Amino acid sequence: MANVLRNSAKFGFSGVLSQLSIHSRHGRECVSPCFSLQQRNSSTSPKIKVDLDNSTGVAVLRMQSPPVNSLSLDFLTEFCINLEKLEMDKSCRGLIITSTLSKVFSAGLDIMEMYGKSPERCGEFWKAVQEMWLKLYGSNMATIAAINGSSPAGGCLMSIGCDYRIMADNPRYSIGLNETQLGIVAPFWFKDTLVNTVGNRAAELALELGLLYSAPDALKIGLVDQLVPEDQVLSTAQDTMSKWLAVPDHARQITKSMMRKQTIDKLLSNREADITNFVSFITKDSIQRSLRMYLEMLKSRKA
Amino acid sequence: MANVLRNSAKFGFSGVLSQLSIHSRHGRECVSPCFSLQQRNSSTSPKIKVDLDNSTGVAVLRMQSPPVNSLSLDFLTEFCINLEKLEMDKSCRGLIITSTLSKVFSAGLDIMEMYGKSPERCGEFWKAVQEMWLKLYGSNMATIAAINGSSPAGGCLMSIGCDYRIMADNPRYSIGLNETQLGIVAPFWFKDTLVNTVGNRAAELALELGLLYSAPDALKIGLVDQLVPEDQVLSTAQDTMSKWLAVPDHARQITKSMMRKQTIDKLLSNREADITNFVSFITKDSIQRSLRMYLEMLKSRKA
Amino acid sequence: MANVLRNSAKFGFSGVLSQLSIHSRHGRECVSPCFSLQQRNSSTSPKIKVDLDNSTGVAVLRMQSPPVNSLSLDFLTEFCINLEKLEMDKSCRGLIITSTLSKVFSAGLDIMEMYGKSPERCGEFWKAVQEMWLKLYGSNMATIAAINGSSPAGGCLMSIGCDYRIMADNPRYSIGLNETQLGIVAPFWFKDTLVNTVGNRAAELALELGLLYSAPDALKIGLVDQLVPEDQVLSTAQDTMSKWLAVPDHARQITKSMMRKQTIDKLLSNREADITNFVSFITKDSIQRSLRMYLEMLKSRKA
């Protein structure tokens, strides 16, 4: 049971308790031996740290919100503000996203944002998730995900929102849109982004089965572009970025927009309906009951 | 010549006599050394046998219509009735489709349904073909094709209508939408399903050349998902199905619908036009003449 | 510097001078050690030679416009006239496109057509580029590119406009839509054709980075279908063509149209806007200045 909990704790976005045991069949290693209900502190210490190197024009955005970089509303808001600042800073041309945490890039959406919250608050949260993706997938900067740990669900969405993905060559790290395993459905724009990345058939299999791919398997289906030893993830991202920045910005930006505009426009023109769908799903009594049971188990395990 | 006939006899859906010799260049082994005009019996013995295991929720649908499981109107009607029954049976969550015949999964559409028939009858037939695909591609059940023999044309369509394809690892078995080789054109929804499965470029090559792929080649382009020794096709399908059924049904079904709805809707909104197109093509004098010559050759060979 | 010039001279369609050095980082060998500003002769000697073998129904179109088969307005006009003649010739069923030049298939659009020309003339030129692609991508003939040398930019567009691509197995030859490297953006129909050929993700990487692929790398991503020793490119194309022509023309043509119509229609319904876009871009002062500097460098190098 503890193993199930530890495994399930990987997912910020988890739904139906009875289905959590499903995931453990995959036998992936827990990303941390001491996962627990997030020890939330109310400190105002930033969840994200950004360093912009003015000589290269490359910013490194480090996610540093223990234990698993869960995408809470606060986290997403901070993420989007930082992204917007960099986007408007003419001296910044490239963005590398990575994690300061051991073994995890981001565990995805924060379950606490979905339990016992008002519909308004849930809607606000979902809008922030949309905003994160819209800003990232449509960024004028060259964007590289330096995936130095596991990256399920929302963490995977963040990764495939970038232009390029470099992952630590560690078979214990996994990545994927595994929502289905948890009784949840990845929304259409998660799906569209995955199809754009790995093609229709691989996306169909990945989404219907809610598959998490080990780093080597992720490379095989094209979910990540490159594997490197764990201690070289960031330096390789820096090297790769210099190749991206060797391409004239304007031409690259127009080309990127040409490739991604249709997918982005689809969410933009369905944004409110997408929020309504999410809120009506997540506030269902049955889903809330499952979330409560799940959280109580996490608490009792802590105690 | 006999070889040509035997080869061409693989295709229920065959058109222009003069082009039949084309196919033989592929040099695929005949799926049966004794192919002939189907010995039709008017018995009411079922062409399909369904076994539902209530303990697992998995039904096995066995096609048992010798010699080659041709998709006749009767066959398709029986197939669709069985599919509908299972679809409405809450205790059935997964469907495995396989064949009881040696060396053949299904040879595709039955040529006899297209020769000397009234336009009304041809239209009825085509509607049944559409129905088979609509029911299968849009099924709420998890569906696995256990392809234990050759599967050209309509047999391939049935296979790619499933969620997953396991084929016997026998290079003498082939699969593909080979209509073009026979002077016929696979309709748009055959094409869409193939593109969804193997991607645009592989589908373009496959359809323009009417390629039949040996089992190993089919695996290479992703036309099937897995090869196993012939005697393990069904058991592997059972094992694989248990993985599919470990995913919560509701989430899997919504996800499947999200992946396939657009393709299904395209036929639904063009269904009548698609029937009209087929009927006007197949009832052409030139096509009917070719069918007659083809059938006479099959008969003379039998005699 | 000379090396940069030689490298950049590969591209008929080159834009911003300051970016030319970017390309040289790829370290591809120059396609010719003696590249220079094209020695234009005003002779009326044809830039294209066509041989139609009436016994096979196969025409071989040889591009023979030294030094690099640049796609000038004259060249494109001649190309389109020849294509149209063959298209209307019932005895011609297949077309093989190749080059008589050493080491180069086609270097793409001719920079001289874009420098110092009136908007009207630029528009006329762009219309001819569109026409070349429309005729080729929508041809009723089976079309094979016998790529016996490098094929950047417009040369790559011509290649992926065919039904099948056979390239010389020489890692010094490269192919790709490298416009972005030169500060230019491949228009949407270049992009659509590439996506149709190699899929969305490979096209995204190729276009955003303006990648030129060595022959082996081009095979890996599916940009070409087959590599053969240099002296067997044409004979392999002939052999391959006989397989294509074994398929009934009518069925192949309808199937090809079904696969490509949507992509073709998209340009047809946006043709004027596409011309306007190109003309307004290429006649910009900044772009014209870059072209002049580039040409002056080529001239000074010659002197």
From TrEMBL, chains A, B, C:
It comes from the Eukaryota. InterPro entries: ClpP/crotonase-like_dom_sf (IPR029045), Enoyl-CoA_hyd/isom_CS (IPR018376), Enoyl-CoA_hydra/iso (IPR001753). It is found in: Mitochondrion matrix. CDD domains: crotonase-like. It catalyses: (3Z)-hexenoyl-CoA = (2E)-hexenoyl-CoA; (3Z)-decenoyl-CoA = (2E)-decenoyl-CoA; (2E)-tetradecenoyl-CoA = (3Z)-tetradecenoyl-CoA; (3Z)-octenoyl-CoA = (2E)-octenoyl-CoA. Keywords: Acetylation, Fatty acid metabolism, Isomerase, Lipid metabolism, Mitochondrion, Transit peptide. GO terms for cellular component: mitochondrial matrix. Its EC number is 5.3.3.8. Pathway: Lipid metabolism; fatty acid beta-oxidation. It is an enzyme of class 5 (isomerase). One of its GO terms (molecular function) is delta(3)-delta(2)-enoyl-CoA isomerase activity. GO terms for biological process: fatty acid beta-oxidation. Pfam families: ECH_1 (PF00378). Belongs to the enoyl-CoA hydratase/isomerase family. Homotrimer. Key enzyme of fatty acid beta-oxidation. Able to isomerize both 3-cis (3Z) and 3-trans (3E) double bonds into the 2-trans (2E) form in a range of enoyl-CoA species, with a preference for (3Z)-enoyl-CoAs over (3E)-enoyl-CoAs. The catalytic efficiency of this enzyme is not affected by the fatty acyl chain length. This is Enoyl-CoA delta isomerase 1, mitochondrial. It comes from Oncorhynchus kisutch.
